[in-house]
Amino acid sequence: MTTVLPIKGLRFSNDVGSLSAVITPPYDVIGPELQEKFYEKNPYNIIRLEYAKSRPGDNTRVNKYTRAANTFQQWLQGRVLIREEEPAFYLYEQHFTYEQKNYIRRGIYCGVGLSPFEEGRVVPHEKTLHQPKLDRLELLRHCEAHFSPILGLYKDKEKFVDHHAARYKKEQEPVINFQDEEGQLHKIWAVTDKKFIATIETFFQNQKIFIADGHHRYETALQYYMEKKREDQSKERYGHALMVLINTYDEGLLAFPTHRMIKQSNLSSEDLLKKLQNYFHIQPLSLTGSREELLNLLERSLTGATEEKLCMGLYTPEKNFFLLTVKDLKDKEKPFPWLDTVILQELVLQDIFGWDEIDRKKGSFIDYIRDEWEAKQQVDRGKVFYVFFLNKSSLVEIIDLAEQGIRMPQKSTYFFPKLVSGLVILQLGIL
């Protein structure tokens, strides 16, 4: 039985000023420059908790995790962060624009009971990397709080949850309602009605939760819960993670590919293309300059790729673009899912470059990027050797594989836009 429960969330007080100045994207998309920008933006920006800066001289006693913990306690004591008086489900709307079209992504902030993946209540779709889990675990050990939500998906074709939530949105004023600097509008309603809570809890008992974004945070939360299990009331105090649950049938749920940049290589472009011929038909395509040209080329070449015509793009330091189409291997046994992320991993990264799973998890050979133009620029500037452009995976494929127990390679999908950090915080260890 899946446990979804209301929480006494922490929210920023009005004293911090505009909420737009205190929120951030998740930690995993924040580089040093962006980190510094958030530090300068507001003294109460969530960056100081979610992704604090390291400093010269840091050691095991004084470091970015201890500073985050100290800041967190100061904000609690100074009522910078205020706790909800009663457990609530937080109804969430994220209004955004993509390619001149307006969307609303609807979800619900809540606590989701932690359970090992093999139990089948919470289901992953991607593999994880070791280093990010170490980082998130140290932060959790020091702060005992979830500062950013995991994005979870559930199947609700009849939109049962949305139907029941609509009434409360009409009857109540949102407790959060603002537009951020990206032009996104965020609305949150805190619903403490016991009848609504019971209805939602009952609905999710027979639902599977599919992790869309936040695998590292979920596995970290589960590990920390296992560390605390020997304590009294550990299940009630540590046995759940902060999630935003979104219906897979929600019109605002957009998923895009994450492309692969090759940071280290002993192969010249000529040698790489020769080796790729073993698995792919290679077609050079003209690419002369602009961002629009690149995006149009990828749209024409990659969109709609199927198992019968599975393809990906390759861009090289010579400023050449190649369309790689998998050769007809129907007569051969397929030992892995026939998706471009898996094909790239098994046939290219492993067989051609020689990187096994341990190498890939280290992250020293490969970088992941969402922006196609920036990926091309990285190659042109000599920052990376090659970029492989991948297709968008469908949510149906992702969930079907997840239900079969098949986890896609790391960073297979990019759900757009990212959920922000700092709207609702879950403090553990508090009953």
Mind explaining what this structure looks like?
- Helices cover 32% and strands 24% of the residues.
- By secondary structure, it is of the alpha+beta class.
- Strands 1, 4, 5, 6, 8, 9, 10, 11 and 12 form a nine-stranded mixed beta sheet that branches.
- It is built from 14 helices and 21 strands.
- A hairpin with a 5-residue loop joins strand 16 (311-315) and strand 17 (321-326).
- The protein has two domains: 4-255 and 416-427, no CATH class; 259-389, Conserved hypothetical protein from pyrococcus furiosus pfu- 392566-001, domain 2.
SSE blueprint:
Layout: E1 4-5, E2 10-12, H1 32-41, H2 47-50, H3 64-77, E3 81-83, E4 89-98, E5 101-113, E6 122-123, H4 130-143, E7 145-146, E8 150-154, H5 160-171, E9 176-179, E10 185-191, H6 194-204, E11 209-213, H7 215-228, H8 234-238, E12 240-247, E13 254-257, E14 259-262, H9 269-276, E15 280-285, H10 291-302, E16 311-315, E17 321-326, H11 340-350, H12 357-362, E18 366-369, H13 372-380, E19 386-389, H14 395-403, E20 413-416, E21 426-427
Parallel strand pairs: 6-11, 8-12
Antiparallel strand pairs: 1-5, 2-3, 4-5, 4-10, 5-12, 7-21, 8-11, 9-10, 13-20, 14-18, 14-19, 15-17, 16-17, 16-19
